[in-house]
């Protein structure tokens, strides 16, 4: 154990811009007792908890506004349509898109990425074309590309990363060529926390004539997203990781691309005219929203964006950066902790293994102490392969987490060390 001077939690917190206790009071679930301990919820990368502002919005929506959207001539249908379309405007502002039509409500990042692969990919890809996907992607940003590659005769190529968990930019540049049609990259890697230089990577892809699809699932809770500044062509994110309900997310696409793309699914809402001679399709965004959408959770998504704005996304990022610095400093004291993901720019995630204790055993011991983390391959098997490990433990942070919870995690790790050591 090396000597590292740690800031005490109190000192660190006093320097904070946030009143974390006041924020915690907005999340009743954080007071839950788990195995006779107060919950320390450090599994936000999997899904964050929901503030009262979001749950009350859902209750109000169902109590006073609900009907189907875009269909009825009655007052409630108007209210529901107004609430749903107003959520789209909020989502548009959240990613700083130019036009609300560029925002498609989807179930989450997975559906957003599949939509792009199925619609844009099926339309554009020819045999021999190449799709570049980084080694640190979540399976959601690998498998849809493999599926469409199989059907179109195109090829998925991996952009490698180094042992710090950073994309090797030289290799990326070398892989780009005139056959590259699509580059699919994550903004923040869920298994490592790496923040990728998206703007620069988009510029390089565009120089090669490729479009860029950004997986922003782990970025949206931590980083202010600006699709105009990034100049990405598509960007997908999940509401449930950024304080919104489950089952809702957004896909941003550049208007001129979405307008030219074929529909993804057929059904109500997405058509202009239907006949047995053939059908024509609605304008964007409705062309890509077949069937009754997830109205209530879209409205909840809008409330979650407002929740984050009320705190300030930069303030959230600063607080989480302090937590991340703190957890790294704590871990440095132990020689038996190996950290995965030492990129220069990181957000939200601390992934590690403990010598002599399997990640799953560690997760179970921590759970008995009330500390919730995630263990496993994190749907990023290529990352596990890179580091030659079957599973890691991962603590992932949200705005309501505290230094005290990190201390509790290390106390629980000490306990596991004693049990298994
Ligand atoms: N990662 C995690 O614990 P969905 O399931 O569609 O909301 O998100 C999929 C997804 C896509 N990309 C990244 C970078 C992600 O982290 C995730 C979800 C969770 O890390 C569940 S595996």
Textual characterization of the structure:
There is one protein chain. With 421 residues, this protein is α/β, with parallel strands linked by helices. The chain folds into 2 domains: 20-31 and 312-420, Aspartate Aminotransferase, domain 1, CATH 3.90.1150; 54-309, Aspartate Aminotransferase, domain 2 (3-Layer(aba) Sandwich). Helices cover 40% and strands 17% of the residues. The protein is built from 15 helices and 17 strands. Strand 1 (33-34) and strand 2 form a beta hairpin. The longest helix is centred in the first third of the chain and has 20 residues, at 75-94. The radius of gyration is 22 Å and the shape is globular. The two termini are 15 Å apart. The chain binds ligand C6P. The site of ligand C6P has 17 residues, from helix 5.
Jot down its keywords:
421 residues, alpha/beta, Aspartate Aminotransferase, domain 1, Aspartate Aminotransferase, domain 2, 2 domains, four-stranded antiparallel beta sheet, binds ligand C6P
Largest sheet, described in full? 7 strands, mixed
CATH class of the largest domain: Alpha Beta
Count of the separate structural domains: 2
Q: How large is the share of residues in beta strands?
A: 15-25%
Helix content: 25-40%
Radius of gyration: 22 Å
Shape label = globular
Number of strands: 17
CATH homologous superfamily caption of the largest domain? Type I PLP-dependent aspartate aminotransferase-like (Major domain)
CATH topology-level name of the largest domain: Aspartate Aminotransferase, domain 2
| Arrangement of strands in the largest sheet | 4-10-9-8-7-5-6
Which consecutive residue ranges, at least 5 long each, have pLDDT under 50? 1-14
| Average pLDDT rating | 95
Helix-strand makeup class = alpha/beta
């Amino acid at each position: 154990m090396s000597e590292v001077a740690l800031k005490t939690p109190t000192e660190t917190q006093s320097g904070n811009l946030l009143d974390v206790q006041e924020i915690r009071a907005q999340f009743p679930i954080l007071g839950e007792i788990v195995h006779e301990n107060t919950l320390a919820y450090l599994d936000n990368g999997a899904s964050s908890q929901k503030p009262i502002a979001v749950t009350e919005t859902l209750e109000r929506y169902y109590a006073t506004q609900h009907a189907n959207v875009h269909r009825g001539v009655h007052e409630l249908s108007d209210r529901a349509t107004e609430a749903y379309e107003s959520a789209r405007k909020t989502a548009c502002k959240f990613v700083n898109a130019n036009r609300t039509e560029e925002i498609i409500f989807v179930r989450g990042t997975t559906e957003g990425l599949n939509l792009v692969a199925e619609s844009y990919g099926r339309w554009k890809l020819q045999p021999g074309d190449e799709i570049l996907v980084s080694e640190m992607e979540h399976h959601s940003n690998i498998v849809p590309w493999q599926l469409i590659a199989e059907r179109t005769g195109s090829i998925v190529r991996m952009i490698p990363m180094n042992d710090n968990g950073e994309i090797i930019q030289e290799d990326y540049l070398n892989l780009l060529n005139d056959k590259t049609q699509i580059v699919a990259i994550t903004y923040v890697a869920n298994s490592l926390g790496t923040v990728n230089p998206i703007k620069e990577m988009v510029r390089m892809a565009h120089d090669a004539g490729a479009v860029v699809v950004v997986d922003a699932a782990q970025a949206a809770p931590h980083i202010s997203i600006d699709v105009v500044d990034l100049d990405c062509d598509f960007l997908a994110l999940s509401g449930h990781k950024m304080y919104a309900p489950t089952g809702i997310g957004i896909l941003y696409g550049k208007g001129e691309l979405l307008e030219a793309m074929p529909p993804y699914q057929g059904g109500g809402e997405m058509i202009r005219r239907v006949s047995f001679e053939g059908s024509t399709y609605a304008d964007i965004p409705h062309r890509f929203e077949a069937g009754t959408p997830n109205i209530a959770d879209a409205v909840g998504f809008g409330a979650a964006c407002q929740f984050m704005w009320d705190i300030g996304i930069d303030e959230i990022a600063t607080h989480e950066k302090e937590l991340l610095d703190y957890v790294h400093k704590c871990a440095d004291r132990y020689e038996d902790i190996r950290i995965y993901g030492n990129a220069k720019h990181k957000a939200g995630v601390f992934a590690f293994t403990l010598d002599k204790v399997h990640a799953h055993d560690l997760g179970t011991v921590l759970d008995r102490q009330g500390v919730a983390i995630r263990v496993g391959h994190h749907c990023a098997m290529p990352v596990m392969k890179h580091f030659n490990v079957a599973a890691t433990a991962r603590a992932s942070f949200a705005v309501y987490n505290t230094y005290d919870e990190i201390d509790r995690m290390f106390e629980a790790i000490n306990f596991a060390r004693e049990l298994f050591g």
